[in-house]
Amino acid sequence: MEAAGLAGFMISAGILTLMLEHPDSVVHQAMGQSAVLRRVPLGLAMGAYSAGFVYTPWGRRSGAHMNPAVTWSFYRLGKVKLWDAVFYTLAHFAGAIATAQLLKAMLGQAFAHPLVNYATTLPKPGEHGTLDAFIAEFIISFILMLLLLFVINSRRLEKFAGLFVGLLIGIYLIVETPYSGMSLNPARTFGSALAARHWTDLWVYFTAPPLAMLLAAEVFRRVKKGELRACAKLRHCDDRHCIFCDHKESPRYPVEEAAH
Questions:
Q1: Alpha-carbon distances of 26 from 41, 145, 147, 215, rounded to whole Å
Q2: Counting CB atoms within 10 angstroms of each CB, which of 94, 229, 240, 256 has the fewest?
Q3: Interatomic CA distance for residues 172 and 162, integer angstroms
């Protein structure tokens, strides 16, 4: 489910990038030369996908992480077991790699065009360098994870977690993309980089998002003084066994707390 969730994200991102950025695309030609304008439909579509997956049966079953940095942040908070974190990470990378290779095979030279470049996430040459990309990825990853932790630990807001995630993803794609390509996700970046055989600045995406999200987890722990009520799911599924809560028919919060 986690592999499929990230695969769907990458398929959508790859096809949309081809439509919006390839110079022979009718969509590209219709939208003119404004790069910002072309990023708006990309942000809306990918934000909607990210939000929607959280509420699907699969997303509610797996937790809808779709990102190893998210999984390991929950592991640091004691909400994910070690082997679950390992296998979630393997699933994320497997989904990303397989999808990027599938798009490469299906879309051919159009997907390899320099303006599409296999939908890789990279600093934009001539405008922003590696340091800018690292800082940008760190900031957006930190904000996303910290907001997510506060939302899912709020009884009033937790049902809107997917909407908050989708909104941030959409805004990031529109505003932050020129700085780093807007990744947030080492698995997503690696999948595209492998297809493109382009390894420049890959370290940025393997360090900034995980470090930022782990820092967000530490900040949350200190602010909330260890009070972590929610499990590792972005949207809890109360009518099925939860692999994180380890019991069925559970509310998101512990039974003894829900009784009060």
A1: 14, 37, 38, 43
A2: 256
A3: 15
